[in-house]
Amino acid sequence: MYILVVDTIHGGTEISRHLLLQGHRVDTVDVYRGDGSISVDEALKRTYDIIAAPVHLDPGHPLMQMTAQYRTHHQMTPFCLGKTCPRFTVEITGARGKTTTAHALASILPGSGILLSSVGITEFPSQTVLGKKSITPASTIVAAKMAIASGGWLIAEESLGVSGIGTLGILTSDEDYLCAGGKKHAAEIKKGMLLSCKTILAAPGISWEDERILHAEDIVSCEDAVCTWSYKGREGSFTNSLLCLTAYRNAIQTAAAAACILGYSPDLLRTFTALPGRLHATPVGSSVLIDDANSGTSQKTAIEAVRYGRTILPESPVHLVIGAEAENICEGFSLTDIKHVIETTEPDSVILVGSAYPDDTESQLSYPCVHLSTLAEGEEYAKTISHAGVIVLAVKTWR
């Protein structure tokens, strides 16, 4: 078949490689930088059997008006895998909580497996990171082939939807935002794609009425640091102090419910520990650093990170490093949200990170702050001014 793969930046090059291995004729177009094998103008002059485009591409783009069979990058995952698949697959999507849920579930599944997350591709049970990969659909193809080769399971964290190869599909949050040139709702896209999975699980607090949906709160419940579960005649409970943090509570509850659905006891989640970049607390001399710098950092997680730090050092000053490294993240951290975090938490000092923010940001925030370009610079500056204080890293970035 003659296939056009659109958007080489977000996994298109990887998808085209798998298609070429299958013997297809492939053209690639980079709609952002023009680095594909052909230009947009050249592609418009040709006739294709399939055009594979990311779901976030503006539907008004000229390449989306051609006469051809259209498939999303997500749909190209099963196309590239053919009839082979891992022993079982869990696909996870949502605006937040994906990485923590994925790692929590992977930490308790028996046997060998492959985890694709924002950390990269990790082999289990050794927890060896095999390489850095994005969470685009193209990376799911790579991770699935590795799981197939080892005969193990696959857990795949995916952005903006799932491929549908999942034995279980999980929605970790239903927070919505516009994408595809502001013409599509991300929450609707994710829910629509999840319906192609064999079984679907919604995390606590998600309102989604469909007879095919299982809700985590119907399987597990939490009170303080104790999680109790009951599913198909089996029941139990476990304790983990992370359950006292909202972000971890939802993720651990969801992972526990997923384990139950897959037929495994979730009780080993009592040993699950905080992930780097996700409210991980580290002593720094007489100070403590709360690391909440990751791709899912938001107004809510930043506020929780400050509150968490104050439970560790209640009377100490708080130095808030906040912002977004715009060059490597799709969704930013707006000044409106940052201002809300500052007004809510009232830190002793603010270090704003991000070259995308204007020079007069300090006046817009109505709060004195230092403005630096990178997370690394912000962290180092905070360490120089913190003496027996709390340093909170709340920078939206890809790590």
Automatic annotation (TrEMBL):
InterPro entries: Mur-like_cat_sf. It comes from the Archaea. SUPFAM superfamilies: MurD-like peptide ligases, catalytic domain. GO terms for molecular function: ATP binding. This is Coenzyme F430 synthase. It comes from Methanogenium organophilum. The lineage of its organism: Archaea, Methanobacteriati, Methanobacteriota, Stenosarchaea group, Methanomicrobia.
